[in-house]
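debug: dumping io for the single-chain case to check the tokenizer round-trip. Nothing else runs in this session.
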Amino acid sequence: MTTAEPACCKPQKQTPDPLACFDLGITMAGAVSAGAYTAGVIDFLIEALDAWQDAKDAGEDVPRHDVNLKVLTGASAGSIVAAIMAVCLPYRFPHQRHDSPLPADDALTGNPLYDTWVQQIDIHQLLTTHDLDNDKPVSSLLDSTCLTTLADSLLDYRPPASASLLSMTIQRKYVADQLPILLTVNNLRGVPYKVSMKGDGHARHDMTLHAHHVAFSLNSASGNQTPITPAATVLNYPNHHAADNWKALGEAALASSAFPLGLAPREITQPLLVFNETAFTRPGALYTWPDGQEPPGIPSLYTASELIKLQPC
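debug: decoded output
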């Protein structure tokens, strides 16, 4: 006589743990001076993820899942914060907390998020007239020359030498090896294009595109990586304001935040390929990547959620 094997002894079918990996996509909206708030949230997020990853690597009793930051997108102030993140992600830097001592006026703390938004800019700098030097024409109501200087300083960022920082550099495991960064921009003049009509191959409808984005691919791993988005500018470390790729990031962030009339417009040069994958292309249509491959079913206008799906955890 045989007895049924207790259910607890039967081999159980293994199912994937839905919490094995958290995919993160960060989208940061325009906020004018409230970008300082966005920067504070990002500062805390990086501090928390660093503390968790360090504890996990040390074998401490913390959640064992993985986290993968897969995309950054931003508009205006959000683009500024995204650019700061691109610069500071390979470095350890001091974090600002509610009980941190307030630095003296214009004194830098070594935290690029805090320094950029709190210590290095205020309305007084925007009310000067340096933009009119050498009989230059008026380009905006506010003097934007200080923003160019601030962007160059940020792109050259290195953490301060400090005994509290065990190492100036860090490999953040929760950041994707190829991190897409999309900064939205607008163009008051617009980019003209035509939409063909079905039924008559000669009929076209004239349109103008004012909304656009500038794409970057942050290479946080060693060696050269192929960007996950076509026509994206690859950002490799070390960062420097004179490098064409990092300079393009700074200009795109300033262009995204250039409020019409209030701040000076920025000129951005992009390859024609960029305009073959923008919003006026039929959503979901195939388009040709630089290597000639056509990935099926990928919408031409990337969103944070779509970019997350393109990368395995």
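debug: round-trip ok. The first strand starts at residue 21 and ends at 28.
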